[in-house]
Amino acid sequence: MRAIGTAAGFAVRVAGDGDAGRIATLSEQLGYPTDEGAVLERLHAIGQRPDHAVFVAEAKGNVVGWVHVYAVPMLESPAHAEIGGLVVDEAHRGRGIGRALMARAEAWARDMGLGVVRLRSNVIRAEAHAFYEHIGYAQVKTQKVFAKTLEAAK
Ligand SMILES: CC(C)(COP(=O)(O)OP(=O)(O)OC[C@H]1O[C@@H](n2cnc3c(N)ncnc32)[C@H](O)[C@@H]1OP(=O)(O)O)[C@@H](O)C(=O)NCCC(=O)NCCS
């Protein structure tokens, strides 16, 4: 089977260790500054879990986008897939790469037997919201996200 996006000059594939540096750079564009070492560690942790997947888009040997998708088992409703993060390099937006990454994540979810893909997106990301709506997603609720920083375990 031809990789998604090949005809458009990019290909989507499973992320590997060698992608950590570019994933970190792109994470910064997403608003989450990090470094190659931290991403590599997380890639290893995620890689050991069959209920998570990370895909990258590669153009001319350069990683230009990534998506993280994972399964979420729930008590009150059937399990679904959730997008952990999605970003396309600023210099490569508008070429169908985001759509192709989402299509790959959706195919993975289908293969996992999951019937719904959900994602959370900050209210300030108006452009991303328009993108998601354009590729078939509908806003189903508005939430507040709460967090508490825990003291280190002794
Ligand atoms: C959102 C994002 C991933 C989209 O990636 P992209 O590669 O530029 O999007 P694509 O080129 O695949 O666009 C797919 C379709 O959506 C449309 N689209 C893209 N951005 C759009 C926008 N802001 N408004 C309306 N439509 C849009 C495209 O026109 C295209 O339509 P078509 O396939 O009918 O021609 C990218 O802009 C990005 O990385 N943004 C910053 C990070 C971010 O916000 N991530 C999401 C966090 S929740």
Quick summary of this structure?
The protein is α+β, with helices and mostly antiparallel strands and 154 residues long. It has helices spanning 20-30, 36-47, 97-111, 126-134, and strands at residues 11-14, 52-59, 62-72, 80-88, 117-119.
3D structure, described in words:
With 154 residues, the protein is α+β, with helices and mostly antiparallel strands. The protein has a single domain, classed as 3-Layer(aba) Sandwich (Aminopeptidase), CATH 3.40.630. 31% of the residues lie in helices and 23% in strands. Strands 1-2-3-4-5 form a 5-stranded mixed β-sheet, sandwiched between helices. β3 and β4 form a beta hairpin. α1 (20-30) crosses α2 (36-47). It binds coenzyme A. Coenzyme A is lined by residues 30, 86-88, 93-99, 121, 125, 127-128, 130-131, 134-135. The site of coenzyme A has 19 residues, from β4, α3 and α4.
Task: Give short descriptive properties of this protein.
single chain; 154 residues; alpha+beta
The total of helices stands at 4
CATH topology: Aminopeptidase
C-alpha geometry: globular
What is the N-to-C succession of helices and strands? EHHEEEHEH
Annotated CATH homologous superfamily = Gcn5-related N-acetyltransferase (GNAT)
Write the CATH architecture name: 3-Layer(aba) Sandwich
CATH class: Alpha Beta
List the strand order in the largest sheet.
1-2-3-4-5
Q: What separation lies between the terminal Cα atoms?
A: 51 Å
Largest sheet, if any?
5 strands, mixed
